[in-house]
Amino acid sequence: MAAKKGKSIRQAVRLITRQAEPRDIAEIQAVMRNAYPTMAIYPADQLQGQMNNFPEGQFVAVYDGRVVGYCATFIADEADALSPHTWRSITGDGFASRHRPLGDWLYGMETFVDPSVRGMRIGRRLYDERRRVCQAHGLRGIVIAGRLPRLARFLKQGGGAAQYLEEVRTGRRRDPVATFQIANDFEVRGLLPDYLPSDAESAGFAALMVWRNPQLDDSARLEAKRRRSAAVQTIRVALAQYAMKPVASFAAFAAQVRFAVETAAVNSSDFLLLPEHFTLQLLSMESEKLDAEAAVRRMTDHGPALHELMAGLSVRRNINIVAGSQLVLGADGAVRNVCRIYLRDGAVHEQVKLHPTPDESRHWGVAGGTDLDAIPTDCGPIGVAICYDAEFPEVTRHLVDQGARILFVPACTDSRQAFMRVRHCAAARAVENQCFVAVAGTVGNLDGVGNLDAHYAQSCVLTPCDVMFPPDGVALELEPNCETTAVVDLQLSALWTGRNAGAVQQLRDRRFDLYSVRWRADA
């Protein structure tokens, strides 16, 4: 039926492209399964890492409210992007952890579209988003390593890989991927053997191709790089070296916590780190010493009040609080050591301790967690490793692969030897991952609370060791065994400088052909 004269018909937009978000991960995985039925899909931690490492470089296409395409990119140095490489080495094992904010080229690490909507030019729309990002950042162009899905069949017929690519380049042969790239103004640079060995259709090969930014001139490129450099912010971190002393009521405990938060907030801190097990101070309220089972039940009872206290302080005082840890009795009957992270926008995240100490397991019956995720904040992704977890290098590496720039280590130790184990390992994590590591511990004595009578700490913030950092790799170190709260400013630009141009570049120089850290999806 014809529309009435003078009236327009308005329909909702059915197809959009937008920046990818964590809520899209399950749908992105479903699209990848459909697009590549014979290949492994990205696990959630890799997709989260891509979004954390370069948020504005990851896109989804959404049709009728459903994700139907995905595009992943990061910025790379020319020396890395245009020289021979493999998928694992250039992408940081799929996490986009080789992202270089001050690099020269946009590297297109992934694009796929659901087969059910092919023919709608969704791939071209995603490529347009890549071009927009490239030009907005003043980059030289886009580099891709394109699949060659008909190459394996050609090789079986007696042809060669170089011959195949040359025939595709000159238009004498059609390849579903490379021909599309050439039609989108990409030029062939050569072959990458063993780029992705699991890609059987391409016989492991990829075509190295580039698109050059036509809007680029030297002044625009330098100005864009200056803007990117200026966008890297200073982050102010506060540490609470917390005194474990008897309290008569929850109100008295809350007053001590509130003082630490207020001190950090008055100094305009972005984060406050509280120590592991500081909440067990509440057990000093009991008239008699509780056995381990009764103590855990009592701490579980305190859970709602603790949550209300921390959530309220975080929002009201405009500070992100890494709230130490507390023992939690789960619905499955297991006791876990849980750190809650209260963000100033009201969001709350959890990180369960993965490695209970032998003492925690023996006395409290604590079981280890299984999940480890970088946490998105308004200052960028962070990671949490609870005390003993910092003594396992794989934990921090997995968090840094996901984009964490600062590792927060809430600790609780009873002697100098125990604390120094944590501190030395934290220093190693800062060096090998080129990140900042903040450690906050408990001090004082808490008589009458089982397994928590003595404490020792010398809380600190540790840095990599290079010329852009303090000579001893220590940004802040508190007096040992003194109750205090202190703040320090951390320059993320120093991390980028160290990772891109440091005397040593541990993240860049990793041997992905020999080793990597992979989280078990079935854990």
Write up this protein.
The protein is α/β, with parallel strands linked by helices and 523 residues long. Helix content is 32%, strand content 23%. The protein is built from 15 helices and 21 strands. The strands form 3 sheets. Strands 8, 9, 10, 11, 12, 13, 17, 18 and 21 form a 9-stranded mixed β-sheet that branches. A 7-stranded mixed β-sheet has the order 1-2-3-4-5-7-6, with helices on both faces. Helix 5 (122-136) links the parallel strand 4 (105-113) and strand 5 (141-146). Helix 13 (393-401) runs parallel beside helix 14. The longest helix has 25 residues, at 292-316. It is elongated. The termini are far apart.
Distance N to C terminus:
58 Å
Strand content: 15-25%
Count up the helices.
15
The major β-sheet equals: 9 strands, mixed
Structural class: alpha/beta
The total beta strand count reads 21
Average of the residue pLDDT scores: 92
Give the SSE layout.
Blueprint: E1 15-19, H1 25-35, H2 44-53, E2 58-63, E3 66-76, H3 78-81, H4 87-91, E4 105-113, H5 122-136, E5 141-146, H6 151-156, H7 161-169, H8 178-183, E6 187-192, E7 206-212, H9 218-231, E8 234-243, H10 250-266, E9 271-274, H11 292-316, E10 320-323, E11 326-329, E12 335-342, E13 348-352, H12 358-363, E14 382-384, H13 393-401, E15 406-410, H14 416-433, E16 436-440, E17 442-445, E18 454-455, E19 460-462, E20 474-477, E21 484-491, H15 492-501
Parallel strand pairs: 4-5, 8-9, 8-17, 9-10, 14-15, 15-16
Antiparallel strand pairs: 1-2, 2-3, 3-4, 5-7, 6-7, 8-21, 10-12, 11-12, 12-13, 16-19, 17-18, 19-20
Helix pairs in contact: 13-14
